[in-house]
Amino acid sequence: MSGAGKEMLRAEGITKAYDGRTIIQDISLRLDQGELVCLLGVSGAGKTTLFHTLSGLETPEAGRVLLDGEDITGRPGQISYMLQKDLLLSHKKMADNVALPLTLRGEKPKAAREKALSYFPQFGLEGTGDKYPAQLSGGMRQRAALLRTFLGSRGVVLLDEPFSALDALTKREIHRWYMGMMDQLKLTTLFITHDIDEAILLSDRIYILSGRPGRITAELDIQPPRPRDVDFALSGEFLDYKRTILGMLEGSY
User: Fold this and answer.
1) Which of 5, 38, 44, 231 could cross-link 203 (Cys pair, CB 3.0–4.6 Å)?
2) Residues 47-75: pLDDT tens digits?
3) CA-CA distance, 51 to 155, in Å (whole number)?
4) DSSP codes joined into one string, 140-208
């Protein structure tokens, strides 16, 4: 379901440099409530740098980040950010892994664990609270990492290639599941991918990031409403979107 609700996240004129070299320049974007928006671009265009800045891990040289109208520029802990790897702690049981954002916010471990466990059935993790990460499949570990991200969020999550490590069948299953969870939990999502097909299948809108330094060079609305079935990926409309995106990315490699 496309987000036609209020604006949840806005970036205005973000510029970030390292060691005197500008990585991203004058980037502005927005996310409306309930949207899933993709940031698509080639390696080295500054996608992860932008996520570090949006999440407050880095402070930009110029620009600001607004979450639900509040300036959160350079303030970590305001937006949940999930990296490509699940980063579950191997020595901790799953309930404690997932409860980590709550304990970091000061909740008592027992209460945090109970709250985390209350979401396990909804996330397809029932019965895994006392297991260790190595005992779970890749898909279940990814669900746990997404639950941990959700528990630390204020309704907006940043996902950096969250599905890239999964095999094709598991990825398709997780796609369907995440679309349902977004609607149930009223989440707003910005995610990075290199996979054009994935971006077209999942997104309400796609931002193209390209150049050196990286800039938003195009914005594309994907019209068919979510969720989109597998047949859409075989349609002429899908191929038209893919041709358009490939044309936008041409010269970025």
Assistant:
1) 38
2) 999 999 999 999 999 999 999 999 999 99
3) 16
4) HHHHHHHHHHHHT-SSEEEEESTTTTS-HHHHHHHHHHHHHHHHHHT-EEEEEES-HHHHHHH-SEEEE
Between CA 40 and CA 134 the distance in angstroms is: 31
Burial class (CB in 10 A: 0-12, 13-18, 19+), 52: buried
Q: What is the pTM of this model?
A: 0.84
Contacts of 85 (CB under 8 A, 6+ apart): 165
Q: Residue 79 and residue 92: Cα distance in Å, rounded?
A: 24
The confidence band for 1, taking pLDDT boundaries of 50, 70 and 90, is very low
Place of tokens 């409309």: 237
**Contact call for residues 163 and 142 (beta carbons, < 8 A):** yes
Nearest to 83 by CA among 8, 169, 191, 214: 191
Cβ neighbours for 90, distance < 8 A, ≥ 6 positions apart: 132, 133, 134
How far, rounded to the nearest angstrom, does the alpha carbon of residue 126 sit from its chain's CA centroid? Answer: 24
**Token pair recorded at residue 21:** 């070299």
**Do the Cβ atoms of 17 and 52 come closer than 8 Å?**
no
CB-CB contact of 202 with 175 (8 Å): yes
Residues contacting 181, CB < 8 A, separation 6+ = 122, 123, 146, 150, 187
Instruction: Indicate the residue type of 122.
Output: Q
Q: Which burial class, exposed, middle or buried, applies to 121 when counting CB atoms under 10 A from its CB (0-12, 13-18, 19+)?
A: exposed
Q: What is the pLDDT of residue 251?
A: 56
Q: Could you tell me how many helices (H) and strands (E) the chain has, helices first?
A: 8, 10
